[in-house]
Design a protein that fits this description.
The complex is a heterotrimer of chains A (about 500), B (about 230) and C (about 300).
Chain A: H1 3-17, H2 19-29, E1 34-35, H3 39-43, H4 47-59, E2 63-67, E3 74-78, H5 80-84, H6 89-100, H7 102-114, E4 117-118, H8 119-134, H9 141-153, E5 157-159, E6 162-163, E7 172-173, H10 187-194, E8 207-210, H11 212-231, H12 234-250, E9 261-262, H13 263-272, H14 277-281, H15 283-292, E10 298-302, E11 308-311, H16 313-333, H17 335-347, E12 350-351, H18 352-359, H19 363-375, E13 380-386, E14 395-401, H20 404-432, H21 434-452, H22 457-464, H23 469-506
Antiparallel strand pairs in A: 1-3, 2-3, 4-8, 5-8, 6-7, 9-11, 10-11, 12-14, 13-14
Helix pairs in contact in A: 1-2, 1-20, 6-7, 7-8, 8-9, 8-10, 11-12, 12-13, 16-17, 16-23, 17-19, 18-19, 20-23
Chain B: H1 57-75, H2 137-146, H3 150-164, H4 173-187, H5 197-203, H6 206-212
Chain C: H1 6-33, E1 38-39, H2 40-46, H3 52-64, E2 68-73, E3 76-81, H4 95-106, E4 112-113, H5 114-121, H6 125-137, E5 141-145, E6 153-157, H7 164-167, E7 172-173, E8 176-177, H8 179-199, H9 207-214, E9 216-217, H10 218-228, H11 237-249, E10 253-257, E11 263-267, H12 281-284, H13 303-309
Antiparallel strand pairs in C: 1-3, 2-3, 4-6, 5-6, 7-8, 9-11, 10-11
Helix pairs in contact in C: 4-6, 8-9, 8-11, 10-11
The chains are: A mainly alpha (about 500), B mainly alpha (about 230), C alpha+beta (about 300).
Chain lengths: ~500, ~230, ~300
């Protein structure tokens, strides 16, 4: 794990959970695992605080523990990858909202907020929030419970592993088939609890957490569909969607290449939907085009049942990574540099002379760009000595090539750094204007308070004027800056997702 | 026949350098770049500007989600603060403070069986909370307010002492739950405008604890307690 | 010279002469029989009773008379029998001139750089330069500036048309690479193909028909460009393909090969829009490598950030 990644992880912990958790997190990042007693020393924090921090981090699944050297002492390990996923939470929630509705979004949000919880508590809290936001007296608990069951069924939430019995340091395990076993919720108990009366919905001890990988699966599919739609058209996008659906019936979600899908079934599925008539008419043609396209998402792997087609997830993400990096080269170094980059990619190994010639860029410019790309590690160079007899000088060839893995890792580091910079700047802008921001917050509170106490509009106006126009303008400027940085962080995470997914298929 | 040819890019009257110019990509005879007369600027002019950020309703919605989530965590018990929450002296501005009730978003319910025993709340009287030496006058204020409850507290502590011998290390679930509730209950109070005798009980003050110190927390105090004194 | 009596020496001389002649014939015959050419050693083996100086004079004579071509293989000189039709050309020329001439001839219309001539001939620079001047004056060879390096000159036979790799072909005007011209052609070709692609958007005939419409052969493009009349030089279809290939590496077009070997091109969309990393200054920052929390390049004081945030 790199220093840059660690620094990013640290900032994220600070922002979400505070300084104490950050310090404990930093300490654990530096080593594979550590027992409790060593942490106060290296963090200079009191033991009690360290314990609190660990509890929180375990609750949110950022830290795991296992039996250490002594049977009753645990060793704690930080899962830095999971911490960084905090950046992606808004995306998870948006997916829920658009695909499954507001209730689903609320339920997932409630689990994310707590780290993990029982279904009934989640449902009750979601109900409370819905009542507030919709401004209604009652919310249908049955709907919420049913929605929860849908989420279980679709594997967006999963059971937390159970502690083993009679071990000093509990070992948490769960069987595969238990993961998505729906909870049995007693509605009467649930509604009693919701109304504040003592009640038992019957699912105490069954803890649920969000299955983030399931969301990643949907993101992956979305990216592929959107790429094909860009490349070909919306009909092709829909076809890929259908193909994915068929794929899930017969393939594990994270394999590199799916099991074959017969054309006949695919055509059936396409014909059933009505919003893409052109697609239904030309299914076979679209399939052929997709299969022949250089993106390589789909291949024909057999002829029975009208043709057997499979999805190449690994290939898809290789292509998407190339596209991403080519785009970066273009924006960072210019279109001529991007031409050189693609040229080296196509030729695999190429000399400087050839680059100039084929790319049709003036020699000096070509050399400069090639050198820049090399310096920033977008290109790699191989030296080849051509050995000749002694009366002719040794000719050394310099061949340029691209090691995609290496470049992808490098760009991932860039993303980490950019994220770190954005977060740092965001905090900096906030703290530079802290006095002003706090003043605004106080005024807002006062206004709220006074409204509740029934202040007149004159009094309210008076309070508002405590903020002068230039101050208001400045605050607005700061607000825009912070928003922009936040947006950038969300979009940076998108790039990270593609690269991480590509690298995970390479293992 | 003639002599051997010469190798490399050297010779022919060019000033020699320690590395082979050819390797840099300059063929023999090409002009090298001009001499550098001053240090390069720290922030050279940017040739390629960043592409504009993607905009849209979805992006804005996610922004709001992000803000809300961070705000929620900040105000939840998950956000651990290092210092005492509130000032001691009643301030003029307090009149306008809405009781923010930090931790108002509900208490974190830990399922202690899922945690290693060392992290579970201890059931020793004094071991449960880190005792801090009296630093702020807040504690004094509390002592004054709570002094009437000392009798009640004494009773409770007696009860605890009896139970304590059975439970070491927090293995008992019932005890654990009780502790947990107390812990959560206490965490629910930040701006202690209201008196809550039960919570104040266990938290105690230095004065009371020193009085009742039965020596068991000696081993617990491992570190400097000087820097932070969380009051629950 | 042997120390013989005068009579003997004449007779010996005659004998020597006739034996020299027969040696010459034998050497020629040997060379005829060998496709690769014969080395001094081969000759020695063939005519062992020849003294070294006699051997050398025969060889030189045969060279001078244009019977032999001289080759240098791995440090050894080889003498190859020349094609009789070519023997006429260099009569009366110096041996070394002949060597240099044949080296240059071998390089064809791509020409050969002076340094390479030197290595092949093993002549010292001063001598070589003199020979080259002589040959140039005799209008047997010429020097042509090569586009691949502006100071480099290549030598080739006088009557030859230099190859495109030397002159640069249509893309060079007096040794200057016409970058702008290439860019304009690049843009025009793309416009042509992009228009074709756009036209297929509303095609109702199905995707395969649409795709076929969007394809254009290099000849189609060539025709379009020629009709535009933007080029003052006559461009060939091959020239067009060179330009279309640059579009390929721009990621803007795709190429496929038809059954008869010709190339088809069509405009394509990239798989992804610009990634998030390049939407923030860091992604395009020239000093990213120097950026850290300590030091003058840091996120809090970053000038690019400041500009971007305003």
């Amino acid at each position: 794990m790199s220093t840059q990644f660690g620094a990013l992880c640290s900032l994220i912990l600070l922002e979400h959970f505070g300084e104490i958790v950050q310090k404990v997190g930093n300490d654990l990042y530096k080593c594979q695992s550590k027992p409790l007693r060593l942490i106060p020393g290296s963090t200079k924090l009191p033991l009690q605080k360290v314990k609190e921090a660990l509890r929180i981090m375990i609750q949110y699944d950022f830290v795991t523990f296992s039996m250490g050297q002594l049977p009753d002492r645990a060793e704690y390990t930080l899962l830095a990858d999971k911490v960084v996923l905090l950046l992606r939470y808004p995306r998870y929630l948006l997916l829920m909202k658009t695909q499954y509705g507001d209730e689903a979004e609320m339920l997932i949000e409630e689990i994310l907020r707590q780290g993990k919880d029982t279904a009934s508590r989640v449902i009750i809290r979601a109900a409370t929030r819905l009542k507030e936001s919709l401004k209604v007296e009652k919310v249908c608990l049955v709907t919420l419970r049913d929605k929860f069951l849908v989420l279980v069924n679709k594997q967006f939430v999963m059971r937390c592993p159970y502690p083993s019995e009679e071990k000093d340091v509990p070992e948490l395990t769960i069987k595969e088939k238990q993961l998505y076993l729906p909870p049995d919720i007693n509605l009467k108990g649930l509604s009693d609890l919701e109304e504040g009366k003592p009640g038992n919905p019957g699912d105490e001890g069954i803890c649920w957490r969000v299955n983030l990988d399931r969301f990643h699966q949907d993101f992956r599919d979305q990216i592929m569909v959107s790429a094909i739609s860009r490349r070909l058209d919306d009909n092709a996008g829909e076809l890929l969607r259908q193909l994915l659906k068929q794929m899930y019936l017969r393939t594990e979600p994270w394999v590199a290449t799916s099991n074959p899908v017969p054309f006949t079934e695919l055509r059936e599925a396409v014909r059933k939907q009505s919003s893409y008539p052109l697609l239904a008419q030309y299914v076979d043609q679209y399939l052929k085009i997709m299969e022949e396209d250089s993106s390589g998402f789909v291949s024909k792997v057999g002829d029975s049942s009208g043709g057997q087609y499979s999805l190449n997830m690994k290939t898809a993400f290789i292509q998407l990574t190339w596209a991403t990096i080519e785009n970066i080269v273009m924006e960072r170094f210019g279109s001529k540099a991007a031409r050189i980059f693609r040229l080296v990619k196509a030729k695999k190994f190429v000399e400087q002379e050839q680059i100039q010639q084929i790319a049709m860029i003036p020699a000096k410019e070509a050399k400069l760009l090639t050198y820049k790309l090399l310096e920033e590690n977008f290109l790699q160079m191989q030296e080849l000595r051509k050995s000749l007899a002694s009366n002719v000088p040794n000719k050394t060839f310099f061949l340029f090539y691209i090691d995609l893995n290496q470049v992808a890792r490098m760009v991932l580091e860039m993303c980490c750094k950019a994220l770190y910079n954005a977060m740092t700047r965001r905090e900096y802008e906030r703290s530079e204007n802290r006095r002003m921001i706090e003043k605004q917050q106080r005024i807002e509170l006062i206004t709220l308070n006074m409204k509740e106490q029934g202040a007149t509009s004159e009094q309210l106006a008076e309070i508002e004027e405590m903020l002068t126009p230039p101050e208001q303008a400045l605050l607005e400027k700061v607000r825009i800056m912070i928003n922009r940085l936040n947006e950038a962080e969300l979009q940076l995470d998108e790039t990270m997702f593609i690269l991480q997914l590509y690298l995970s298929y390479q293992i | 026949m003639a002599g051997r040819g010469r190798g490399g890019g050297r010779g022919r009257g060019r000033a020699s350098m320690s590395f082979n110019v050819e390797q840099l990509g300059f063929t023999a005879g090409e002009a090298l770049p001009g001499p550098v007369l001053q240090p390069p600027p720290i922030y050279p002019p940017m040739e390629n500007k960043p592409v504009p950020l993607q905009t849209g309703v979805e992006g804005e919605y996610m922004l709001a989600l992000k803000r809300d989530f961070v705000e929620f965590l900040r105000e939840s018990p998950a956000f651990i603060t290092p210092t005492a929450a509130k000032a001691d002296i009643e301030r003029y501005s307090d009149r306008y403070q809405v009781a923010l009730a930090k931790k108002s978003h509900g208490e974190l319910k830990f399922d202690w069986a899922r945690f290693p025993p060392e992290l579970r709340p201890q059931t020793k009287i004094t071991g449960k909370r880190k005792q801090q030496p009296a630093k702020s006058t807040e504690k004094q204020a509390k002592i004054i307010r709570k002094s009437v409850d000392i009798v009640g507290r004494l009773d409770e502590l007696e009860k605890k002492e009896e139970q304590q011998s059975d439970t070491e290390g927090g293995g008992d679930e019932a005890e654990g739950k009780e502790d947990e509730e107390k812990e959560d209950g206490e965490e629910g109070v930040m701006e202690d405008m209201e008196d809550d005798p039960d919570e104040e009980m266990d938290e105690g003050t230095d004065y009371i604890n020193n009085y009742f110190d039965n020596g068991e927390n000696y081993l617990d105090e491992e570190d400097d307690n000087l820097d932070d004194g969380p009051i629950y | 010279m042997t120390t013989n009596k005068p009579e003997e020496s004449v007779r010996n001389g005659n004998d020597q002469l006739s034996s020299l002649e027969s040696s010459e014939h034998r050497i020629l015959a040997l060379a005829k029989g060998s496709g690769k050419g014969i080395s001094d050693k081969d000759i020695q083996n063939e005519v062992p009773d020849l003294r070294p100086d006699q051997r050398a004079s025969i060889i030189n004579k045969l060279l001078a008379q244009g019977y032999f071509d001289l080759f240098n293989q791995g440090g050894t000189l080889l003498y190859k029998l020349k094609d009789p039709s070519r023997i006429q050309k260099v009569k009366g020329a110096d041996n070394e001139e002949k060597i240099v001439y044949s080296i240059i001839e071998e390089a064809g219309n791509k020409g050969i750089w002076i340094r390479d001539i030197r290595f092949k001939s093993n002549l010292i620079p001063t001598q070589l330069n003199k020979i080259l001047k002589i040959l140039e004056n005799k209008k047997l060879i010429k020097a042509v500036k090569s586009v691949s390096a502006s100071k480099k000159k290549v030598y080739m036979l006088y009557n030859l048309e230099p190859d495109r790799t030397v002159t640069g072909g249509a893309w060079y005007c007096d040794q200057d690479f016409e970058a702008e011209f290439v860019d304009v052609l690049n843009q025009q070709c793309y416009r042509f193909l992009h228009q074709k692609l756009e036209a297929t958007r509303d095609c109702k005939g199905g995707p395969i028909a649409a795709r076929n419409i969007s394809y254009a052969s290099s000849k189609d493009v060539w025709k379009y460009i020629s009709e535009l009349g933007i080029s003052k030089v006559q461009l060939s279809v091959e020239d067009m393909e060179t330009i279309l290939d640059t579009l390929l590496y721009d990621g803007k077009v795709e190429r496929c090969v038809t059954t008869d070997g010709s190339h088809l091109y069509r405009a394509v969309e990239s798989l992804l829009p610009a990634p998030g990393i390049v939407r923030i200054p860091c992604g395009v920052c020239p000093v990213l490598r120097h950026c850290s929390d300590v030091g003058s390049v840091n996120p809090k004081k970053c000038v690019y950030m400041k500009e971007w945030l305003e």
